UniProtKB/TrEMBL annotation:
Similarity annotation: Belongs to the major facilitator superfamily. TCR/Tet family.
Lineage: Bacteria, Bacillati, Actinomycetota, Actinomycetes, Kitasatosporales
Transmembrane region(s): 50-69, 81-99, 111-131, 143-162, 168-189, 201-221, 233-251, 263-291, 297-318, 330-351, 363-386, 407-428, 440-463
Keyword Cell cycle tagged: no
Topology with respect to the bilayer: Multi-pass membrane protein
InterPro entries registered for this protein in UniProt: MFS, MFS_dom, MFS_trans_sf, Sugar_transporter_CS, Tet-R_TetA/multi-R_MdtG-like
Organism annotation: Streptomyces cyanogenus
Name of this chain's protein: Multidrug resistance protein stp
Cell division recorded as keyword: no
Gene: stp3
Amino acid sequence: MKPLSGTRPVRPRAALAALAGAQFTVMLATSVVNVALPRIQSGLSLPDTVAPWVVNAYGLAFGALLLAGGRAADLLGRRRTLLAGLTVFGAASLAAGLAPSAPLLVAARAVQGAGAAVVAPAALALVMDVFPPGPGRGRALGVWGAVSGAGAAAGVLLGGLLTQLLGWPWIFHTVALGTALVAGGVAVLVPRVPGGTPGRFDLLGTTAVTSALTALVWGLTAARGTGWSAPQVLTALSLAAVLLVAFVRVERRHPAPLLPPRLLATGTVAAGNVLMALLGSVWIALFFFLPLYQQQVLGYGPLVTGLGQLPLAAANMLGSTLAPRLARRLGPPVTVGAALLTEAAGLLWLARIRADGSYAVDVLGPTVLIGLGLGAAFVQLTVLAVAGVPRTDAGLAGGLVNTTRQVGGAIGLAVLTTLAGSVTARAATGRPHPEALTAGYRTAFAVCAALLVLTAALVPALARRGTEPSTVPRTGTGPSAH
């Protein structure tokens, strides 16, 4: 392969390994705290109202800043932006492990999320730079999907292992060390691509959309603890709506908008992002409710709960690896639909969990199905969401698809936790607490399954509507640029 920079030959596989490592660390940090949170709460004497923000601060900053991070990568240069993001991410991880108090820990997690918001879209755009349209890019995205799912599952495993053996600060120290290794790999293995795209940074539009997403994610997160009718929740959601309207008006008038209309009109970008938002609402909820069932109902410790994620991670990697091959034979829409229905079947099976159940009977089989479907669906929806996007907008497209997944996840988790909580409260009358909790979890998994069936039903119409042969080049993964 010819060098992109004119300085040394490009080794695509080595570059992909470094870029996939960057995505792995981002996904790892998303879930690594979940199992460790009870130990963190007791170690720092966190009030119940503060403890969830150790998780929420990361997701809030990550989701709100992804679009800005993607656009910065396009304008400033993806490799240098990725290295800067990894530096911020790693430093914040180290600070989180050393934090002596709740405010400093929450602040460090927010900065960690901001770094991740730069890393994720820049790394995905660099994958698109290194692998031109064709079968090679499809296989690269299969690896990308595999490490994304494996990172989320490994976060639960690593969080449980480190918390139980070394103490909760080591979950952050380990992420910081891993980030330093990834940054070194990026510096050595990822080629210097041509500099940033000339253009103006849409500061007003960026401020409006970042503030809107911050208010939206904060309001949805707060609703999980206070209820939907709480004044602060209603105020945040109303502010988000006003700011989103303002963002649309700003974008219409700006000569170089943050989110140009051409991007959503390209290929299957709009369809891919809508479907990714729906998948995200189920993805994040799964990694929230499943460890809770294992710990609060089955009584497993952090380490055993983490080990229980290994079959899910392995199935996810297998599904991600098979996705490009299936798409070449069946086409992306059929592959996405089949993957979503496979995941829905696993969640419907999981909706039969029992309070007196076991991992082997109630969890293992469903999570294998879920992992297969989730891996394949994530890869192909990423393909659809960046189909036909020109190189100048690759970072923004990567930021957009990550934003829709994160925001979809925040909405889904807020709705599902409220629903599960209300079912548990009603079931608690005259029933043991584990049975009441199980009733709530069953409801959440059943709703997730129904949502995925609905998503699968939307795939043919959305994908067909967005596919335009004249603008979407055919590749090894079907009618998309990936």
